[in-house]
Design goal:
single chain; alpha/beta; five-stranded parallel sheet; 20 helices; 43% helix; globular
Length: 516
């Protein structure tokens, strides 16, 4: 059984040390044979660095490393001079330290090729290195840049510092265009898409494939890739945890799949899958490997709610209108991977994307963070209520679950409540989602559907929430609009909830069982 490449981002090491490699070289072949300048944005730990590394060895001409892959007998492997930079691998604490760190990197690159820098100006050093490598090796130069905007993201809460770095990078990356005739291929990655006036304003020949349908599954694992490349890991894990193979696959799909970059096709986050097969336990691996403290401050500062994140569809243009520190929260979180495209709608020649959490892992962790940062609920209280909600669903004790929801609502400072139905839809959904159950809030993305639906252990719970209207009004609406029809054949519970605007909490609720 092949080893799991957790944290391994070097293609040579993966191949030579018998790690699992999910073959993505067809995408790379298509890119290399159809164009020259490319940019791809994806969330962290999604395989960007491995992609850069794979391209590096292709352009180094190391054909034998690719035996058994799609590209092996199709590409003319020859060696090109390469400039490979990871912009996150710099000292990023201040603008000055970043420049000093990058300057050291370029001195190393010059020295590596037996060249001597004739200037200290970094953009000029970059441009000169391209031309000098071309002259020395008599081949055009390949440029691979990972995490292009890492120095900016490091200062996302410091607009002045971020703009200083952006101005520098604008001049730095401009050299890629001015030295076009000396360049063979360019591939750049980052977490956030660039704007027309930002870092790449002068680099207008860069082809952004971030939302290109053809490359939507280039990074991440598809369902087919998961089941093919991890077949032995799936079988062994299923035996160890006492779960059927098909049941395990379905649980993996709900927990870790769902990231989509075109609104149609989805992929798994590689980091979560690798960690799951290592530990063989369902945990929030990807989310908890990130920067919760930064996210906490971001959510707290902007008073982010679930409803506001998913309420409005977004277009491709929304991702390039503002710089990332000025972007709407839903745009920022979509680029960071905490939201994803759940559907796509076409209006004439334009497309709009419906946003939502990709899967249980993100929904669970992000909801806990919103409760803590936005609603001021203590971490221990969230854990306690989560446990009680899970227990109540296990025992099908709906009243107990609603009482727990009431308890957490009552712990929220009075002045944070808003007297709107959508506020309570969002809050109650977030409380339930924080428990890690399979819950959706359909009305927030498609008018005329039920407020909240829980699907757990073959049972379906449909909620309709009203402010200052009887709980039976909620039941009446569910029946009138037949929200339950899509779940026929399952045990279904209709739950009408009345919120008192005066008490700012659940005042009454009605539960009715249908089907089953």
């Amino acid at each position: 059984m092949k080893k799991l490449p957790i944290g391994v981002q070097d293609y040579r090491e993966i191949v030579e040390e018998n790690y699992v490699y999910v073959d993505k070289t067809k995408y790379l072949y298509d890119l290399m044979t159809s164009g020259k300048f490319y940019f791809l944005s994806r969330p962290r730990r999604f395989g960007k660095s491995l992609t850069i590394s794979t391209l590096y060895y292709i352009f180094k001409g190391e054909k034998e490393l690719f035996r058994g892959t799609y590209i092996y007998d199709k590409w003319d492997f020859k060696e090109y001079p390469i400039i490979k930079l990871d912009m996150s691998d710099n000292t990023l604490s201040t603008y000055e330290k970043f420049l000093e760190s990058l300057h050291n990197k370029f001195n190393e690159l010059y020295s590596k090729h037996g060249l001597q820098a004739t200037t200290d100006d970094l953009p000029t050093m970059f441009g000169n290195l391209i031309t000098e490598l071309n002259a020395k090796y008599r081949e055009r130069v390949v440029i691979l840049i990972d995490e292009y905007e890492a120095p900016i993201l490091e200062h996302i809460n410091n607009k002045k510092e971020a703009e200083k770095i952006r101005s520098f990078l604008r001049e730095f990356y401009k050299k890629i265009k001015t030295k076009d005739e000396y360049i063979k291929f360019v591939f750049m990655t980052g977490i956030t898409k660039f704007t027309k006036t930002g870092v790449f304003s002068a680099l207008n020949n860069l082809n952004d494939i971030s939302l290109n349908k053809k490359y939507s599954q280039m990074l991440g694992y598809t369902q087919e890739e998961l089941e093919y490349y991890f077949k032995e890991h799936i079988e062994e894990t299923a035996r160890e945890i006492g779960m059927g193979k098909e049941e395990l696959i379905e649980n993996l799909k709900e927990y870790y799949n769902g990231f989509s970059f075109d609104g149609r096709r989805s992929v798994y986050n590689p980091f979560s899958i690798l960690r799951f097969f290592e530990e063989r336990e369902f945990k929030n691996y990807w989310f908890e490997s990130g920067s919760p403290s930064f996210l906490y401050e971001y959510i707290k500062g902007r008073k982010v709610t679930y409803e506001e994140l998913v309420k409005y569809p977004v277009s491709a243009m929304d991702f390039t209108t503002r710089e990332i520190e000025d972007a709407n929260a839903n745009i920022f979180f979509a680029q960071a991977g905490y939201l994803t495209f759940k559907d796509v709608r076409r209006y004439g020649f334009e497309e709009e994307y419906i946003l939502d959490y990709p899967n249980i892992e993100v929904r669970n962790s992000f909801s806990k963070l919103i409760l803590e940062a936005n609603y001021g609920v203590e971490k221990e209280k969230i854990k306690e209520v989560n446990r009680e909600i899970i227990k109540s669903l296990e025992k099908n004790d709906i009243r107990r679950m609603i009482e727990e929801i009431k308890r957490i609502i009552s712990s929220i400072p009075y002045n944070l409540h808003r007297g709107e139905e959508r506020y309570y839809h969002s809050l109650i959904y977030t409380i339930i989602a924080s428990a890690g159950v399979n819950v959706t809030a359909e009305e927030l993305t498609s008018i005329g559907r039920s407020d909240i639906v829980i699907e757990e252990r073959g049972k379906v719970y449909i909620f309709e929430i009203k402010i200052d209207k009887g709980a039976r009004e909620g039941i009446r609406q569910i029946k009138e609009k037949r929200y339950y029809e899509k779940y026929v054949g399952k045990e279904i519970y209709l739950i009408g909830i009345k919120i008192s605007s005066k008490e700012r909490n659940i005042e009454e609720y009605v539960i009715e069982k249908v089907g089953g």
